[in-house]
Design goal:
Strand 6 and strand 7 form a beta hairpin. The radius of gyration is 20 Å and the shape is globular. The protein has 357 residues and is α/β, with parallel strands linked by helices. The chain starts with a strand and ends with a strand. It is built from eleven helices and twelve strands. The strands form three sheets. The protein has a five-stranded mixed beta sheet, sandwiched between helices. A five-stranded mixed beta sheet has the order 8-7-6-9-10, with helices on both faces. It binds 5'-O-[(R)-(carboxyoxy)(hydroxy)phosphoryl]adenosine (KG4) and zinc ion. Zinc ion (ZN) binds next to helix 4.
């Protein structure tokens, strides 16, 4: 009956959450830095690290209190140690080491991308079944965030293989760039989604299918958007004011192009690898159009985490940490940060003790 505290500081959210062994989320506290970075139009790594140093302590404390717990109730501390911004990761990993040492409980490093996938293993409501409980393995996971766009085949717990990835921009990065082009602000995903809602279907952008490949490419789409916005005389975007009908139709066309490719390639890869279900994860999985289209077009069941668990958060790290803990994974006190850590680069069975060396 080990309660796991999860800590997440890989990018611009300082987050902590606590989960029970059955996957119930007891608390999930996120201190967003969006406002701090918004004035720069993107994340400034130095500023992010410093914010994590300021926020980690209070956020962790709040996560324990919000779960109705006290320190001795925590049985293990899980923390994202990669991929992400080095300085940001260090802030979270150091906080986790200090806490694990003080409480005398195990430390468990978590791959951020696995954390996103495991959001789908957070228990939600009565009668809930885990994805493997619903349909079994293998499961095709589409991980779409600000830094990643990957198709990961999950053959079992802790057994992953990357079968497709972006060759240039990540899907979330593309949303953020498109929103900047259209003057919709940062972060771009939610802004594009809002602008696209109910917009006219006046435009259509080309899709980068890349033949039969399971890889993605979004940089050409961004160039097409810039070109069209220029032709229409709305780029560079005028500051302020609600988006015009023209901007909204471009936002819709952009979103449709991204969602089209994400859904088609995921469904195709799921079929190729005999997947019995699909999981969508990461910040872009919060996108309503992506969620609807994937559910409508997939021949196998689709699991999408609650939107609050899609963008970076501590509960997803705790859920993944809880599964890693049960698989016997433990981290040594010299656990290092790995900014370039890849999805599926580690199999849990082969990593009972993670160290810095
Ligand atoms: O997973 P996440 O919080 O951080 C990373 O690990 O990168 O993902 C953030 C990304 C941002 O690019 C943001 O624009 C995108 O997720 N995003 C969305 C939506 N909500 C967040 N993209 C499309 N539609 C949304 N509703
Ligand atoms: Zn993330």
């Amino acid at each position: 009956m080990t309660l796991v505290l999860g800590i997440e500081t890989s990018c611009d959210e300082t987050a902590a959450g606590v989960v029970a062994p059955d996957g119930s989320v007891l608390s999930n506290v996120v201190a967003s830095q969006v406002e701090v970075h918004a004035r720069y139009g993107g994340i400034v790594p130095e500023v992010a690290s410093r914010q994590h140093v300021l926020q980690a302590g209070p956020v962790i404390k709040q996560a324990v209190a919000a779960a109705g717990l006290t320190w001795p109730d925590i049985g293990a501390v899980a923390v994202t140690n990669g991929p992400g911004l080095a300085g940001s990761l260090i802030a979270g990993v150091n906080a986790a080491k200090g806490l694990a040492a003080a409480l005398g409980v195990p430390l468990v490093g978590v791959n951020h991308l696995e954390g996103h996938m495991y959001a789908a293993w957070a228990r939600s409501g009565p009668g809930w079944l885990s994805p493997e409980g619903r349909h079994g393995f293998p499961i095709m996971c589409l991980v779409v965030s600000g830094g990643h766009t990957e198709l990961v085949l999950m053959r079992g717990h802790g057994d992953f293989a990357v079968v497709g990835q972006t060759r240039d921009d990540a899907a979330g990065e593309a949303f953020d760039k498109a929103a900047r082009v259209l003057g919709l602000g940062y972060p771009g995903g939610p802004a594009i989604q809002r602008a696209a809602e109910g917009a006219g279907a006046l435009e259509r952008f080309p899709r980068a299918w890349l033949g039969e490949s399971s890889d993605f490419s979004f940089s050409g789409l961004k160039s097409a958007l810039v070109r069209r916005a220029r032709e229409l005389g709305i780029y560079p975007a005028p500051a302020g004011g609600p988006p015009t009908g023209l901007v909204r139709s471009l936002a819709r066309a952009f979103q449709e192009a991204v969602v089209d490719v994400l859904v088609s390639k995921t469904v195709q890869a799921a079929g190729e690898h005999g997947s019995r279900g699909i999981v969508i994860a990461g910040g872009v999985a919060a996108n309503a159009s992506l969620r609807q289209r994937m559910a409508a077009e997939s021949p196998v069941p689709v699991t999408v985490p609650h939107t609050s668990l899609c963008t970076d958060n501590g509960a997803m790290v705790a859920v993944c940490g809880s599964h890693r803990y049960r698989a016997g994974v433990r981290s040594a006190m010299d656990l290092d940060v790995v900014p370039g850590l890849r999805a599926g680069s580690e199999t849990w069975a082969s990593m009972p003790v993670q160290t810095g060396g």
